[in-house]
Structures are given as structure tokens and as C-alpha cells.
Amino acid sequence: MHPLTFADQELTNLRGKGLWRPLRVLESPQGPRIRIGGDDLLNMSSNDYLGLANDPEMRDAAQAAVDAFGAGAGAVRTIAGTMEIHEALEREIAEWKGVEATLVLQSGFAANLGAVASLVGRDDVILSDELNHASIIDACRLSRATVRRFAHSDADSLRAELRQCEGYPRKLVVTDGVFSMDGDIAPLPDLVEAAEEFGAMVMVDDAHGSGVLGRGGRGTVDHFGLKGRVHVQMGTLSKAIGSMGGYLAGSQTLRDYLIHHARPFLFSTSHPPAVVGATRAAIAILSREPQRVDRLWENARYFKAGLADLGLNMGRSETPITPVIVGEAETAHALSDKLRTLGIFVQSVAYPTVARDAARVRVMVSAAHSRDDLDQAIGAFARAATDLGLN
Ligand SMILES: *Cc1c(COP(=O)(O)O)cnc(C)c1O
């Protein structure tokens, strides 16, 4: 038997269950309108919250960085892969976030791995929200620390777990700031208070909070006014910021420590100049045009009010992430397919990404959507919901 036969069998199994999904291939840049399979579609599935992914200023900045610094970085940061622009970007993110220092890694995923696995080790304990992102779950495993999960967004459950953790030298409380599948916001003030009672470090994964929540998109910590009380703010540069990368924001000590311990930083090559140039332009745009974030929230409110009028179940969403929860995976896929025939690109999400009975389509509202776009989407949901008997 071929050593990869198991993989064929698994794919056959997925097809049998109707769970095999092809990759959707864009024939256009990312944006509110995209081309897939020759069809022009309204895009309501990307994480490009602020419409920056194809921003002309960012494209120009990427090209200028290539002209000045070339196509590749050529080494890891600690050998010869740190260019002036890498450090400039880190200073600019620190200024924007209002923290002492930041460190940029290749992706949000890499940033989580690098931070968690270097802040705690075998003898330590991590307290992790049960719905945390896959990259945090992997980071926890990689750290070899004991992992205790607390009930979702429940500070009392966190406290109960912390009470069991007396003997551990280091304790790390980690939570998503905004939960990526449900769009709810972590009750950070309560979690921080609990962590402080037990002398635990606090880390927030703000992949969906960065550029979205807080003043001008400064994130969940800013949203709750918790400056100085969260030791590690992780954010991605790949979603609202429109390019690629992950940053870890906090004190100068944190940055210096991570430079010496975070393995994706130490052992994986730094960003190519084009990425750094584009990202610097994005941070400049965000600092200069906080109204983009206001526009995102206006759009989210308008769209969600439209779906609420249709009687659709948006779960506990409090942000532009808008799940429409339908139950069975097949129903979610059928809804996605139906919307596609109506010109709307909305991806379905099912087990194991979400609970078995909570399959959904996940609608992402962007600042780049026009009122007409949102009306078109609400109209399509009205038709699809009637056809599928969802309301
Ligand atoms: C997307 C995401 C990440 C990973 O960020 P990338 O920059 O895409 O690697 C980490 N955490 C959460 C909560 C996310 O949604």
C-alpha cells in the first residue's frame, strides 16, 4: 500500500459526508468585489475590515521598499535579516498602540507560538479560554506547560482554575480579544482582575480586535482602558491592517526577552521588504484616518440590523464578525451556495471549526462596503432564508 493511502481514504470519507470543500480561487485582488470562477461577486468573507489589502498607498509603499531594499530579507532577524525598515515598523506600531515596544513576527500564528512557548515552559501553567484560536491551542502544546481551560469568557471559572495553580512559578492567562467565529468580545476587565489577584501574566490575542476595536482601532486593551495591565498584546497585520505579519506589543523587557527566546523569531526568516513597506503605510493610514474604523462599525450596525429584521440568528456577535447560525453543516453549505448564486460570496463554517450543531455562514462586514453593497447582501439573505426555510 502507498504510504499516503490513508490520506486518500480520509478525502473519500470527507466527500461522502459532504464536507469536502474546494479552495475558492480569486481571479482579482482582495476587496469588496472579487472575481471567482469567472463570476463577479460581492465579497463578505474576507478579514480585510478596513479595505486596506489593495490600497494604492500601500501598493506604492511596497514597491518603494522593493526598490530600496530588494525582494527578500535573506536571513533571520538575529543573523542578517533585520533591516532599518523592520525596526521602523516596530517603532511605528508601538507608537500607534501606545506601548513601549513591539516585535513583529512572520504571522499572527507565529507570534502566538513565539510568545506563549517562550513565556512559559514545562513547570508552568497556562489558563486558556475554551474557545481560543487554534494557534493559541498549538502554542500551549508547544510550550509543554500544564494547560487548564476556563469556561468561555467566564472570570469566575478562571478564578476557580487559578485557585488550583498555587505551586506553579509562572502563570499565563490567555484569551482572544474578539472571538473569530462568534464575534463576541472577551470580558477583559474581569479576566485581568482575576489574573492580578493571583499574580498571573495576561496575554490577549487581538487578531480581530486590532484595527477594529478601541480608539482608531487600537485594540481590545484600549477599548476597555486597560493600558499597562495586559502584559502581551498580540495582533495580526494580516486582517484589518491589510498585509501580513503578527506583532507582540508590551514593554521593552518583553521585546528584548522575545528577541532571545521566541523561536519563530530566531529560526525563521524575516518579512521581505514589500511586506514591511506595505504594512508601514497601513499603520500611517490608520493613524491618520481613524474614521475608517467608524465607517466599519456603521456598516456593521446597518448590516446586522438588516439581518435581525429577517429573524436570523447571529449568536452573541458584538463586532463586525457576523455569524448566521443555521445548525447542520449541510444547511450552512447550502446557504453559502445559494448566496453565491445571488452574487454574494459568504463562506460556511462547520465542525470542527465550530460546534457540531452550530454550523453557520460567517459574514464579514468591511468599511469598504457601500450602502448599496450591504442592501444587496441583506436582500440576498432575505431570499436565501425564505428558500431554505431559515426564518
Ligand atoms: C487569524 C488569527 C490568528 C493568526 O493570524 P495570522 O496573521 O493570519 O497568522 C491568530 N489568532 C486569531 C484569533 C486569529 O483569528
What percent strand? 15-25%
Radius of gyration, Cα only, in angstroms?
A: 21 Å
Structural class: alpha/beta
Give the SSE string: HEEHHEHEHEHEHEHEEHHHHEHEEEH
Q: What shape does the CA trace take?
A: globular
Mean pLDDT over the residues: 97
* Strands ordered across the widest β-sheet: 3-9-8-7-6-4-5
**What low-confidence regions span 5 or more consecutive residues with pLDDT below 50?**
none
The count of DSSP E runs of length 2 or more, i.e. the number of strands, is 13
Task: Sum this structure up briefly.
With 391 residues, this protein is of the alpha/beta class. It has helices spanning 5-16, 56-69, 84-97, 108-119, 134-143, 155-163, 188-197, 220-223, 252-261, 263-267, 273-288, 291-309, 329-341, 371-388; strands at residues 33-36, 39-43, 101-105, 125-129, 146-150, 171-176, 201-205, 232-236, 246-250, 321-327, 344-345, 347-349, 359-364. The protein has a seven-stranded mixed beta sheet with strand order 3-9-8-7-6-4-5, sandwiched between helices.
